[in-house]
Amino acid sequence: MTQHTRWEYSTIPLLIHATKQILDQWGEDGWELVAVIPGPEGANPVAYLKRPKAA
């Protein structure tokens, strides 16, 4: 039987002046960037991330 990867997801607000630092930190923790969309009312963008769930 094939095992499927289980994912966990997170959303984080991005501060324009610190976007790279924020994404680098989450990347160090194993998170992969999936998408970035505008935040509510055009405020700071929101990053959607995923990583494999621990077994």
How would you portray this structure in words?
With 55 residues, this protein is an alpha+beta fold. It has one domain (7-52). Helix content is 18%, strand content 36%. The protein has one helix spanning 19-28, and strands at residues 7-13, 32-37, 46-52. The protein has a three-stranded antiparallel sheet, with helices on one face. The two termini are 16 Å apart.
Secondary structure class reads: alpha+beta
Tell me the series of helices and strands, N- to C-terminal: EHEE
Q: Could you tell me the number of beta strands? A: 3
- Whole-angstrom Rg: 13 Å
Strand order within the widest beta sheet: 1-3-2
User: Biggest sheet, in brief?
Assistant: 3 strands, antiparallel
Number of helices: 1
Mean pLDDT: 91
What form results from the Cα inertia axes? elongated
Helix content: 10-25%
* Beta fraction: 35-45%
Domains (count): 1
First-to-last CA distance = 16 Å
The low-confidence runs, each spanning 5 or more residues with pLDDT under 50, are: none
Topology:
Elements (H helix, E strand, L loop, with lengths): L6 E7 L5 H10 L3 E6 L8 E7 L3
Antiparallel strand pairs: 1-3, 2-3
Summarize the structure.
The chain is α+β, with helices and mostly antiparallel strands and 55 residues long. The protein has one helix at 19-28, and strands at residues 7-13, 32-37, 46-52.
Features:
3 strands, 55 residues, three-stranded antiparallel sheet, alpha+beta, elongated, 1 helix
